[in-house]
């Protein structure tokens, strides 16, 4: 029995095109597009873009200055759960740059980083309260859930949003157990 090379190669090429084409179509029409639609319907979201990798679903959102950051994250996570599946949700927030809010954030960054490193999340709120006192007109809200700490800074029509991932305490082996 002699194999013909041309039909064999043609069959392999068509099979690969159908397989990978189907995967990309599913990824775009079955995951990215529905999640993008869900995200764009949430109050406070100006625009969104969804990308998917093997283990992550990356949602890039542009928020209005009056958006509730923790609520937007929670709604994307809840309403998009069927689409996200077992993948990890990565949330990237962008807003219009504000030099004053950037300066205020850099002022509080050390205290916030120290609080996050020591897992003393109430110190984040205290640091942001000090920031609001040092920069009149800047209002700050902090929220927290099991996964992240959310910081929203507002100055008139400008806003800065920061999501800080919480690292749960790891259980170690007791030396005398």
Helices and strands in order, then pairings?
Layout: H1 5-40, E1 45-52, E2 56-63, H2 69-79, H3 81-84, E3 88-94, H4 99-117, H5 121-134, E4 139-144, E5 148-155, E6 158-165
Parallel strand pairs: 2-3
Antiparallel strand pairs: 1-2, 4-5, 5-6
- Distinct helical segment count: 5
CATH superfamily placement of the largest domain: ANL, C-terminal domain
> What's the CATH C level of the largest domain?
Alpha Beta
CATH topology heading of the largest domain: GMP Synthetase, Chain A, domain 3
Helix content class: 40-55%
What ranges have pLDDT less than 50 throughout 5 or more consecutive residues? none
Please outline the major beta sheet.
3 strands, mixed
C-alpha end-to-end distance: 69 Å
CATH architecture of the largest domain: 2-Layer Sandwich
Q: Which strand order spans the largest sheet, edge to edge or round the barrel?
A: 1-2-3
Number of domains: 2
Apparent shape: elongated
